[in-house]
Amino acid sequence: MQFRQQALAKLQSPEELDLPVRLARPQGWLVLGLTVVVMAVAAVWAVTGSVASTVGAPAILTHGQGSYLLQSPVSGQVTAVLTRQGARLPANAPVLKVRTARGTSVIRTVAAGRVTTLAADIGQIIRTGTTVAAVEKVAHRSDPLYATVYVPAENAAAIPAHASVDLTVSSVPTERYGVLRGEVTSVDRTAQSAQSIAAFLGDSQLGEQFTRKGRPVAVLVRLDPSATKSGYRWSSAGGPPFRLDSMTLATGSVHLADQHPVDWLLP
Known about the structure:
The protein has helices at 2-11, 26-48, 174-177, 194-201, 204-210; strands spanning 54-63, 67-71, 76-81, 88-89, 94-100, 103-108, 113-118, 125-126, 131-136, 145-152, 164-169, 180-191, 216-223, 248-255. The chain is of the alpha+beta class. The strands form three sheets. Strands 1-10-13-12-11-14 form a six-stranded antiparallel beta barrel. The chain has a four-stranded antiparallel beta sheet with strand order 2-9-7-4. Strands 6-5-3-8 form a four-stranded antiparallel beta sheet, with no helix packed on it. It is elongated.
């Protein structure tokens, strides 16, 4: 009853009807103002800001024209090995001698290059089409190296022209010498099969390795030249104190095109 009487008393006091109603305390207005400002800044950043992202993928250092598999055009027994692994040969250079039913035949290189794999020994019986060597197509020791990064096909469209690439080279300690710098020169929009990769690299095992998680896209990367021992630019001051070899495995981190955060909300 006491509270009811107090309420009736307030209703019967006309002098209090013109008092202003306090909707919120000053602290409440401050919090509301800060919330509105934060939301406005977030909205502007979502439209005008950008977020950088990368995609990591296996890579390999090679000379730009790749390699080819040298296959025997005849069947017979190998009687002589006329070169060695690592040798640089001109086009049409002798590689093997094979004794066939019609006499001795010489297997020769198709194009100039360096013998990266020699897969035949004296006394071995080979058949027509047997791979006897892998030859990297490089004419001179000074020819520059490139990196081929095998990127998942779904990321290919997001790679911009001249995108920067960081390469972690398997034979170079990253914690000491950092990563190798490069730039995208071309993106092959056709997904690569194990056979096409093997044909380019001259190694069927690498073809299977690079397609283990699906058919990737080949991204050709030009290595940034520099006056270092390796001949290329690194994230460290000088990089490793030795030159790099072709057919060296690496891991590439390709910088994708920047995205506006609002793009994530749009279908």
